[in-house]
Amino acid sequence: MAVLSLFLPPFSPDYSGVSAVLFDLKTVTAMHDASGCTGNYTGYDEPRWYGSKSPVYCSGLREIDAVLGDDEKLIQKMIDAARDIQPDLMALVGSPVPMVIGSDLAGVAAELEARTGIPSFGFDTTGTTYYDKGAAATILALLERFTEPLATMPGSVNILGATPMDFGKGENLRDLKKLLQDRGLFLTACLAMDYNLAALRQSAAAEVNLAVSRTGLLVAAEMEKRYGIPYLCGLPYGEKASEEYFAALEEVRQSRQSRIFNASSRDFCDCCKLSAAGGACGVGRANDSRTAPEILIVGEQVQANAIRLALQRDYGESSVAVGCLFGLEPGLALPQDKDLKSEQLIGQELNRDNYRLIIADPFLKVLLQNNQKEFWPNAQYAVSSKLAADQIARLTGSHFNRWVNLRIEKTKV
Amino acid sequence: MSCCFENTLHYSSPAHGDWGVVRIGMLAPESVQLFVCPFACGRHGAIGAMRQGFKNRLFYLYISQSDIINGYDDLIPEAVEEVFAALPKMPRVFFIFVSCLDDLIGTDHEALLAVLGAEHPDVAFRVCHMNPISLGSLTPPPISIQNNLYSLLEPAENRDQGVNSLGNLVALSPDSELHDFLEAAGCDGLRHISQYETYDAYQEMARSRANLVLAPAGRYAAQQMQEKHGLSFLFLPVSYRLEEIEESYRRLQEFLLPGQPLAFDFSRQKAAALQQVERARTLVGSTPVIVDGSAVVRPFGLARALLEYGFSVCRIEAQECSAIDRSDMEWLRAKHPEIEIFQPQHHKAVLFQRRLPGSIAIGVDGAYLAGSRYVVDLFNDQGMFGYYAVKKLMELIEEAAKAPVDLEGLINEYGLVV
User: Fold this and answer.
1) A4 CB near a chain B CB, below 8 Å?
2) How many structural domains is chain A composed of?
3) Residues B273 and B312 both lie in one domain
4) Spatial distance between the Cα atoms of A375 and A384, rounded to a whole number of angstroms
5) What is the maximum span of chain B, computed from C-alpha positions, in angstroms?
6) What is the mean pLDDT of chain A?
7) Within 10 Å of residue B159's Cβ, how many Cβ atoms?
8) Would strands B210-213 and B374-376 be described as parallel, antiparallel, or unpaired?
9) In this predicted structure, what is the pLDDT of residue B264?
């Protein structure tokens, strides 16, 4: 169903998610489009593009190719590029026109592989769904092709669902890696930023998967089925919440049971057991339908949940809702959370009287009619791209507390 | 030098791109734009518009897969009404943009325009195309959008002595002697769409006596204006060669004042240009120079000019050679076979072979690919024409040679859209 958007830019699409996952690998990747779709990715969805040598290309699709369904031209261009680039793999990425003409990119990839011997993939992305779907499908396809079950390496973890659309250039991921290292854990693979094919192959040996985004959750659930690796879904934001996160990680390692690290009612008891405050976290109040939430965090669901948990544990803010921009995963949601599928719904939610504080990408501020509400910007590349990259908050561990304290200081001034 | 243009997968460097149809369309005074497309198609245009400060005139109707299957013509009028309701005042121009896929599904644009026009007779509706899939056809997006802009001009009852400049997206620099020449030839100013703030004021361009097409993308629009308005045009692409500049002015003289003697003495401007050439060449010496198609419409012509001035041109970055640049390419092939031709979008570009960090690059794409630290800040011949263009280019080369540039910052400033 058509949706009108008057104020916000479109968010990062599925084909950008595919390309971002392939960025680090030695590929010949062709986005099957005329130029604009590739331009979306290289210009506005990929903060690592400047200075990189990643062979992500545009196929240069033209009307006559689309009308005649001339796959041979595309295949030949791929083969020519492969001759010069010598890739480990090749990929074709769909866009709206291949969707309309019914291109069989998986079939073309099979033909490519038969003719070159190079592992090849076709992704039927359409530009009508968000980046996380494309990213997850790509990671799963790579795992299926390159990863066999391996013996578990104790103390090893994978980070799953790392994309620039959620993490920009990856500062919060670097902080997470440091925290893992400080606790004696080691990284098998970070899928899909700062990794290579060898790391991908080793990823099946991880003891636990850390799903750091909705993309990561989709991958983690599948890896649990395929390789029996349990996962922890969440992020360690905030000093106290981070302690709980690592306690939860230890629990997952011991129990081999996957866990969503969130302020769900199931977590309520656990978190109170783990919390230094012991029963004072206030989650119960947030779940009370009689109390409308006072704080709204809008964005990617796993990150927004992590901010909520940190606000609860470290600052006693218990009345917090999450608004999901890219789809709501029921297993990650609390009753007060919202699936904000359109600009109209985002605007309605932001402007509800019960919210006194909004935490969201700075571009969303334009929808706020009441400037009495406090607004804390936390940019997300999938929304504001490079235009607000300097407002991507550093939130991992105690950085969260510094960020919040600075905002509180600014509010006082 | 060999002719080496290959149709490969396209590499898209961070310096690749141009204004894009959104920004060009925004030149129309009192206009708004509604894109009807899958959401993904609009992302680069919207972010670009936010950077340029006109997102408040740009709107989207995101269509789903089922909308594409069912046809989306009937969804547009309601969306148009919603856009009107959200605007502080009614626009005079409403551009409805469709994307590549629309070329393949046969939307009835005429019927749509008839419905909208009947409902809002005070608004000029146009269907525009953001369809790079048509690149290589007669009317790809950079050409069709210019035609949309000038199709808004209604035939005027009376003509005046004004002259329009078409094709160039930025008004010609006031320092160009073309203005003085036109004045001497009895013309009442060189008009450009960017100078008008209202739709009514913009109609002044319909009263002009002639069109000067300073960049190829405006030629189709000029042909259409000739049919619609009977307005003759002269194609005068920017050149940096003195001979060609002289010839351009001779043609312009004949176009405006046929059979009459030259109305203007260019000796002062020519001398100033040559003096600046000498200064720049002395400063640059034998430093290798890269000429890039992002800086100028005719990179082969510029390379020839620089070689004739005594510069050490070592490379030309051009994805292809346009018809108006072909004779200069042939000249270069014959006289300077040592000069490299690189295609900036060739799949091998990503290998970044043959870097030249000490070179001076005229154009950001060539600079990025070669790793040049010294970059001439020129994009798409903006503001250039005549002897002024030579003098200004030499000043820019001098400036570039004196200090390394923050290339990433410069590229970001350009706000390019693919």
Assistant:
1) yes
2) 3
3) yes
4) 16
5) 66
6) 93
7) 14
8) unpaired
9) 87
Q: What residues contact residue B53 under an 8 Å CB cut-off, 6+ apart?
A: none
C-alpha–C-alpha distance, residues A290 and A272, integer Å? 22
Nearest CA in chain A to B407: A50
DSSP states of A247-298 as a string? HHHHHHHHH---EE-S--HHHHHHHHHHSTTSS-S-HHHHT-TTS--SEEEE
- For chain A, the residue count is 413
Residue B379, burial from CB neighbour count under 10 angstroms (0-12, 13-18, 19+): buried
Interface check for A40 against chain B (CB to CB < 8 A): the answer is yes
CA dihedral for B339, B342, B348, B353, sign (positive or negative): positive
d(CA A59, CA A328): 33
Question: Residue B133 and residue A61: Cβ atoms within 8 Å?
Answer: yes
Let me know whether B349 and B214 are in one domain.
no
DSSP B174: T
Q: Which residues of B touch A13 (CB under 8 A)?
A: 38-40, 43
Backbone angles phi, psi at B254, to 5 degrees: -70, -35
| B124-164: pLDDT as tens digits | 999 999 999 999 899 999 999 999 999 999 999 999 999 99
Q: pLDDT digit string (tens) for A236-269?
A: 999 999 999 999 999 999 999 999 999 865 443 3
Provide the CATH number for the domain around residue A393. Answer: 3.40.50
Q: Please name the residue that has the structure tokens 């999901």.
A: A324
User: Is there a single domain that holds both residue A125 and residue A157?
Assistant: no
Does residue A9 sit at the B interface (CB-CB below 8 Å)? Answer: yes
- Separation of alpha carbons B45 and B43, rounded Å: 6
- Are residue A124 and residue A193 in the same domain, yes or no? no
Contact between B43 and A9 using a beta-carbon 8 Å cutoff: yes
How far apart are alpha carbons B373 and B333 in whole angstroms? Answer: 27
Contacts of A63 in chain B (CB under 8 A): 103-104, 133-134, 137
- B3 pLDDT tier (thresholds 50, 70, 90): low
Q: What is the DSSP string of A140-170?
A: HHHHHHH-------TTEEEEE---HHHHTTS
Indicate the length of chain B as a whole number.
418
Question: What Cα–Cα distance (Å) separates residue B287 from each residue in B309, B343, B362, B398?
Answer: 14, 22, 13, 12
pLDDT tens-place string over residues B368-406: 999 999 999 999 999 999 999 999 999 999 999 999 999
Predicted local distance difference test score (pLDDT) of residue A277: 37
List chain A residues with CB under 8 Å of B63: 2
Is B66 in Cβ contact with A128 (below 8 Å)? Answer: no
Same domain? B243 vs B299: no
In chain A, pLDDT over 70 holds for what percent of residues?
A: 93
Closest-CA residue of chain B to A62? B133
